[in-house]
Specification:
By secondary structure, this protein is an alpha/beta fold. Helices cover 46% and strands 17% of the residues. The protein has one domain: TIM Barrel. The strands form three sheets. It has an eight-stranded parallel β-barrel, surrounded by seven helices. The chain has a two-stranded antiparallel sheet with strand order 4-5. Strand 8 and strand 9 form a beta hairpin.
Amino acid sequence: MINKLTDKIKKLNAPVVVGLDPMLSYVPEHIQKKSFAEQGETLAGASEAIWQFNKEIIDATCDLIPAVKPQIAMYEQFGVEGVMAFKRTVDYAKSKDLVVIGDVKRGDIGSTSAAYAAGHLGKVTVGQKTYAGFDEDFVTVNPYLGTDGIQPFVDVCKEEKKGIFVLVKTSNPSSGEFQDKLIDGRPLYELVAEKVNEWGAGCMGDRYSYVGCVVGATYPEMGKALRKLMPNTYILVPGYGAQGGKAEDLVHYFNADGLGAIVNSSRGIIAAYKQEKYARFGAEHFADAARQAAVDMIADITGALEK
């Protein structure tokens, strides 16, 4: 799957991923009203509204972008109905030939970690049959339980030719409380990066490993150093746009081949119609606003890479 992601990025010249992280407040009123009329002001009604919102975003952007990244918490908050909307979103995105990165940030050990890996990337056996559960192409994982927590995911990645993105240096302001702490004179995030490199060495695609990492756009100097520590690792970069990350700061996250990183934008694209820059589209045409925001993001990042 890392080969497919790389190929799509090259073909589209678009190293970007759209984060499908829909708060109900992002969903235009006309979609909410229709869903509530059909299913009431219920968890099912909210989940239907989110699903319809996602579908239009995907339809409007799928020819421009290589991947989407649904954040599962935004669906889980609506209970079982929300999880069903997450699954519908994953399946629909894959039907449009998009790579799906499940932002699930799982981290556990032993059989629990294996169950997470099977449920999101692999298969489970029921009697004489096997089934793929959520069936994403990649998922995000938390490394702070060590190799015990990561190895089950790596094993499934090898079997299914899928991938993971391991949290290394996250974009949130308080990430440094732990990630920046010095261990024998080196920041913890560098030690995690070295483990990512180690975990990924045994499951390589043509150029990049199935084991990627997450490094926030808000820490460009750290990103530059981490790129050197993980030359064969794809970097998923959150924090662009709304969180303050700028295109010119992201150049060093990429390798000399122009690959090696994929930059995420969530509300900057899916809620673009709420921004003054795209207000001309209006809520009725929110998906067109999202498409224009995606076009602008691609131009911003590729332009910075070409300088």
